[in-house]
Specification:
alpha+beta; 19 strands; 3 domains; five-stranded mixed beta sheet; seven-stranded antiparallel beta sheet; D-amino Acid Aminotransferase, Chain A, domain 1; OB fold (Dihydrolipoamide Acetyltransferase, E2P); DNA ligase i, domain 1; 587 residues
């Protein structure tokens, strides 16, 4: 497919407001893509590489402006491009404003160079894809110049419309309203297969290009035969915030695990060596990228972080006897093996240089809580409780007696219970052991890659409210001039009252009128808008955090205080004390 055709179609899609019509346009585009189906199904989403592939172009915006400027002619500089961007606000529009072509010089050969805008030397999506791959592969000294040259060569062959979408593609700003769901529905439509089966194939492969081709060439049977592959990352299942009460209401029982404060990892291991087949047959650059390594580790965003975490690789090599994909967390630990805060893991995670030195400073270890694949068998559909059993078996691979301490420690424990008290005590143990708290999971649930569903819940800490005495207020302004607002809150300290914050948000006009009636009789002094109130009324107040603060006489301040109600049942002597504030804060 010519890049110009792709650009025309992208423009049509961009101009279309209705989602269903967008799906129809993408469907047509995929049907017409021929041999370039894989590339087109990525480009239309603004992706150059498959989602599982952590390759990046590694070219910054300024290098892109430089390439545009060079292709636009001798009188345009990268600064001009940037100035126009500041005015116009969008790189596609800026690129489309220039007249490309006819520039010669280094790099122009990358795409022909003599003729812009189309006559006889039309850029194809495949050429664009191959050049961008070459650009991504350029590394080492002089690679930035090489990248700019290659990109210049591409822009030099573009018409204005082509340049619009090339610039957006390169800077990952496609924004034509095509998301993953659109491509899923369009593949289903174009090749007459059910959308949920396309979705499943996407979940296991993370490769839109490949799924589109398989759907077209092999139909439903081919799609259903697509499986997880050791070495190719899967999107991580995510959690929502939730409470124990909700979990126990919705499920018969809850699976309770400790929540480790580290960084998410997905471990892929094959003792025989990982061999990811056909990265994408349509990608130039030779397609298959086989490795002989046994272990790959990916981040939550499917980035390859293997080299940064040698402990995880060593662990896998020492412990696992079967090919497996495990989901877990890498945590930093001190000399006693106790967990360190998340920030310490960050000193190791994604590190590219001086890994050995960093390893001396911070030690990490993996903890696994899920198992997605063992020895040729995918477990995404299996219930959590079963996946956990498989995890236990895999981790005790070469140590059935459980004497290998690192294997035992690498298993996240799981309790299945419907007893709220037991859950509380697991939570207390988790905190005691230095972890973040607990996760609540539905023991019957499948593994849903990429989903932030209700089947995994991270427990929200219960917000403890404070009952504060109202010791001051301010008359409002404008429409609210007759209402008292911005209430000053205090807590007891022996016989005294000390201020701890002001609450102004979360109160309706109606409520303000009511509060004004309640408080006005207690006004002790007035100065300007400000009034002092004699202690009489107690507010219940929610907040996100208690902080140390010199602003208030208690020495503390409530962060994001919210008015929850008047404690009519409480006298000021029953309000909360500074002591309680201090104890809440130290929890
Ligand atoms: P959050 O990052 O706050 O959304 O919490 C979810 C994250 O907690 C996951 O992505 C994991 O990285 C991490 N986590 C720690 N322990 C567990 C566990 N037992 N199960 C699932 N996720 C966990």
């Amino acid at each position: 497919m010519e890049f110009a055709t792709f650009a025309d179609r992208a423009a049509e899609i961009e101009a279309e407001p209705a989602d269903l019509e967008i799906v129809a346009l993408v469907t047509d585009l995929l049907e017409d893509a021929g041999d370039d189906l894989g590339i087109v199904s990525r480009f239309v989403q603004g992706r150059v590489f498959p989602a599982w592939d952590s390759t990046t172009l590694d070219i910054g915006p300024s290098a892109c402006y430089e390439a545009i400027a060079r292709a636009a002619g001798t009188n345009v500089s990268a600064d001009d491009v940037e100035d126009r961007l500041a005015e116009v606000g969008e790189i596609g529009e800026v690129a489309a404003g220039y007249d490309f072509g006819g520039q010669t010089g280094l790099g122009a050969f990358a795409g022909g160079g003599e003729s812009g805008g189309g006559d006889g030397d039309d850029l194809t999506v495949r050429e664009a894809s191959e050049t961008l791959e070459e650009l991504a592969a350029a590394s080492g000294s002089g690679s930035q110049d090489r990248k700019v040259d290659l990109l210049f060569g591409l822009f030099n062959r573009c018409s204005s419309e082509e340049a619009r979408y090339l610039a957006r593609l390169v800077l990952s700003e496609m924004r034509i309203g095509v998301g993953e769901g659109t491509v899923r529905d369009a593949v289903a439509e174009a090749f007459d297969v059910p959308a949920e089966r396309v979705e499943r194939a996407l979940q296991v492969s993370n490769d839109y290009g490949r799924v589109a081709r398989v759907a077209r060439d092999e139909g439903l049977e081919g799609l259903d035969a697509m499986d997880l592959e050791v070495g190719r990352p899967v999107q991580a299942m995510l959690a929502q915030a939730g409470t124990v009460t909700e979990a126990l209401e919705e499920w018969d029982e809850a699976a309770v695990e400790w929540k480790y404060d580290g960084a998410r990892i997905q471990l892929h291991h094959d003792p025989e060596g990982i061999d990811v087949e056909g990265a994408d047959a349509e990608r130039g650059g030779g397609g298959a990228r086989a490795t002989t390594e046994t272990t790959r580790v990916f981040s939550r965003n499917m980035e390859d972080v293997t080299n940064a975490l040698p402990e995880v690789v060593e662990f896998a090599e020492a412990t696992l006897e079967e090919p497996a994909i495990l989901d877990g967390e890498v945590v930093a630990i001190d000399e006693d093996g106790d967990p360190l805060p998340f920030q310490e893991v960050l000193r190791r995670f994604r590190r590219k240089h001086d890994v050995a030195k960093a390893r001396e400073d911070v030690t990490v270890r993996p903890v696994f809580f899920d198992c997605l694949h063992v020895d040729g068998e995918d477990l995404l559909e299996a219930p959590l409780a079963e996946r956990h059993d498989r995890l236990v078996a895999v981790l005790s691979g070469n140590d059935p007696a459980g004497t290998d301490e690192s294997a035992v420690e690498a298993l996240s424990l799981l309790w299945v219970t419907d007893d709220a008290d037991e859950i509380e005590s697991i939570d207390a143990d988790a905190l005691e052991a230095g972890h973040e708290g607990i996760m609540l999971k539905n023991p019957e649930s499948a593994y849903s890659p990429g989903r932030r569903g209700k089947n995994w819940r991270k427990r929200k800490p219960d917000v403890e409210t404070l009952d504060c005495v109202v010791t001051g207020a301010e008359w409002g302004e404008g429409r609210r001039a007759t209402f008292l607002g911005t209430f000053e809150l205090s807590v007891r300290d022996g016989d005294d009252l000390e201020t701890i914050g002001r609450v102004a948000t979360g109160i309706t006009d109606e409520k303000l009128a009511e509060l004004t009636d309640l408080l006005e009789p207690h006004v002790a002094a007035e100065e300007g808008q400000r009034v002092d109130l004699e202690p009489a009324v107690v507010f219940e107040v929610g907040y996100e955090e208690i902080q140390r603060s010199p602003t208030y006489s208690s020495g503390y301040a409530l962060r994001f205080p919210r008015f929850l109600g008047v404690r009519h049942d409480k006298g000021t002597e029953d309000a909360d004390s500074l002591e309680r504030v201090e104890s809440l804060r130290s929890r």
